[in-house]
Amino acid sequence: SLAAFASFGAQAADTQPAEIAIPVLVLHEGSVSSLQNTLPSGKDAIQAPLIQVQLTGDFEADKDKIAEALAALNEKPVRAVYLSSATAADRSQDSAALQNRVLSLSAFAEALRQYYAHAEPSADQRPRLVIAAPGGAPVTLASRDKDVSGSSVNSGLWAFARVLQNEYDFLDIRSLDFTGPKAGAGSQLAAAISLLGDTSGNREWLLDGRNGILSEIRAVPGPVAQSLRKTTGFKAATIRQRVSSQVGSIAWEQSDIPQ
Questions:
Q1: What's 139's DSSP letter?
Q2: How far apart are the C-alpha atoms of 232 and 253, rounded to whole Å?
Q3: How far apart are CA 11 and CA 247, in angstroms?
Q4: Cα–Cα distance between 252 and 4 in angstroms, integer?
Q5: Rounded to two decimals, what is the model's pTM?
Q6: Is the CA virtual torsion 95, 100, 245, 253 positive or negative?
Q7: Which residues contact residue 171 at a Cβ distance below 8 angstroms, ignoring those fewer than 6 apart?
């Protein structure tokens, strides 16, 4: 089994993104007005222009909406945030919710594939997506508040993001989990936008709402003793798809810790 935890690369989550002039596509399931009401204001206000895209889980309909939003960028680099709300107390609909969100992310990836059909992007032109998935990371309980549990929907979405990254290698995906207070949709969006400027090799992150620290998540063989949760002595790991289009060929591999 794998136990993942956040203990490296701590940095302030309130750092302003370097590309604030570039519009950000905000993919979400809620109403536009509800999200607008949760956005931070004052000195914490989001500076990037936001293009909201309300998704439903209908693959074709979502793909058409996303394609329209991509066209509205007028050839600017694609920067997107997908907001996946926390699991509701009633978990009877978790399976349907996860299926809808997987279809929405798949629609985004396919719309991108068509958008870049004639020229694969490179360098700063590569599209970037941050998936804000509270409760999704496979972190140890010590990394969460005592009364905060994981999310069955977002943990499934977290795993799917790894598959999506391997299937669509022209797209840079980051997954972001949250713990502590100040983890509402507006704060999640602000933190995710700050992560759009990340150019490190790490793809999974945890934001501590108590102190604003953004930490990398690394996977190591588990269970892990408390005394080892701060170590820097082990290698990092990466997930790799060894055969194209075959999910069964996905495997973990040891890699060097990103510098």
A1: B
A2: 18
A3: 34
A4: 13
A5: 0.74
A6: negative
A7: 109, 112, 126, 127, 128, 129, 164, 165
Alpha helices in the chain (DSSP H): 32-38, 59-71, 94-115, 152-167, 185-195
CA dist., res. 13 & res. 183, Å (int): 12
Q: Is 41 exposed, middle or buried (0-12, 13-18, 19+ CB in 10 A)?
A: exposed
Over residues 95-129, the pLDDT tens digits come to 888 999 999 999 999 999 999 988 888 888 899 99
Q: Which two tokens stand for residue 252?
A: 């973990």
CB 166 within 8 A of CB 241: yes
Predicted confidence (pLDDT) per residue in 125-181, tens digit:
899 999 999 888 876 555 555 555 568 888 899 999 999 999 998 999 999 998 876
Please give the Cα distance from 112 to 90 (Å, whole number).
34
User: What is the 8-class DSSP label of residue 76?
Assistant: P
Phi, psi of 54 (to 5 degrees): -85, 120
